[in-house]
Amino acid sequence: MTIEQLQYFMAIAKYKNFSTAAEECYISQSSLSKQIKALEQELGGVELFDRNTKKLDITYAGKEFYISADKILMEYQKMINNMKKYMDGHTEVLNIGTIPVMNHYGLTDIFFKFQEYYSNIRLHVIEANSVPIIEDFTKGKMDLAFLRDNYLPVGDFKIFPLVDDELVLVTNYSHWLAKYDEIDLKEAENEKFLFLGNNTGMYESCRQACIKAGFVPREQVLDVRSSTIKNLVANGQGVSLMMHQSIKYMDDPRIKIIRLKDPSIINLSLIVRNGAITDAVSTFIEYVTDSFGKL
């Protein structure tokens, strides 16, 4: 039995398809089938997959084998990662995904200072909207991700809360609501709301805040950055709901920030998959949680 055979088995169990698993493992389908046959023979002829149905299914024996194989592969990867630190000149790369809030919450400074202090750990940071970040994190393409806690992936991961923020209403300074510092959101129910695209966690957060306030928003959904939404609001094209820290960072004298009497509180969190916490990942998590909010 080899590590490769266990990896092949896990790929087939994941995709329920030999062809897709073969592509994922970069081998031919015939070679993959031979490797699984050899594995089953080594296990005394126990069949791990039911090949007699139209849809490939894992057998009861296969489900039990899956639990053991998963543990072995996690320990194997942990062993490999632990040995890397003894390699001369070794630099470990951490793949990090973040929604577009790096500057708003001081993440850029934290990343820079971490990189200065830990020269043997290189950060590869990808900034994108919530949906692609979650997809890549779920597929294992990212080691860690910065996301808001109201829009997290489904799975076995650990959450490290970093900072709470609140939704606020944003208008231009000539808007009739600009004379208020705080309102009930329902007072804005007749306004046109400009929202970020539905590939962002913010879209659903803003829409649910309106529904909670007792109305369905008259919305225009835009696949743009929050800075563009801010400029449209400043030019009188509508109002918007944004995170307080984000809009404060943009610091535009043309807009008015109006707090809500019953605001939605959302936490920016750092997440990591359980079983994928290497020494480098632990070092990064500890540094971020210790330094967050101090810069």
Automatic annotation (TrEMBL):
<dbReference type="GO" id="GO:0003700">
    <property type="term" value="F:DNA-binding transcription factor activity"/>
</dbReference>
<dbReference type="InterPro" id="IPR050950">
    <property type="entry name" value="HTH-type_LysR_regulators"/>
</dbReference>
<keyword id="KW-0238">DNA-binding</keyword>
<comment type="similarity">
    <text>Belongs to the LysR transcriptional regulatory family.</text>
</comment>
<dbReference type="GO" id="GO:0003677">
    <property type="term" value="F:DNA binding"/>
</dbReference>
<dbReference type="Pfam" id="PF00126">
    <property type="entry name" value="HTH_1"/>
</dbReference>
<dbReference type="GO" id="GO:0005829">
    <property type="term" value="C:cytosol"/>
</dbReference>
<keyword id="KW-0805">Transcription regulation</keyword>
<feature type="domain" description="HTH lysR-type">
    <location>
        <begin position="1"/>
        <end position="59"/>
    </location>
</feature>
<dbReference type="InterPro" id="IPR000847">
    <property type="entry name" value="LysR_HTH_N"/>
</dbReference>
<keyword id="KW-0804">Transcription</keyword>
<dbReference type="InterPro" id="IPR005119">
    <property type="entry name" value="LysR_subst-bd"/>
</dbReference>
<dbReference type="InterPro" id="IPR036390">
    <property type="entry name" value="WH_DNA-bd_sf"/>
</dbReference>
<dbReference type="Pfam" id="PF03466">
    <property type="entry name" value="LysR_substrate"/>
</dbReference>
<dbReference type="InterPro" id="IPR036388">
    <property type="entry name" value="WH-like_DNA-bd_sf"/>
</dbReference>
<protein>
    <submittedName>
        <fullName>LysR family transcriptional regulator</fullName>
    </submittedName>
</protein>
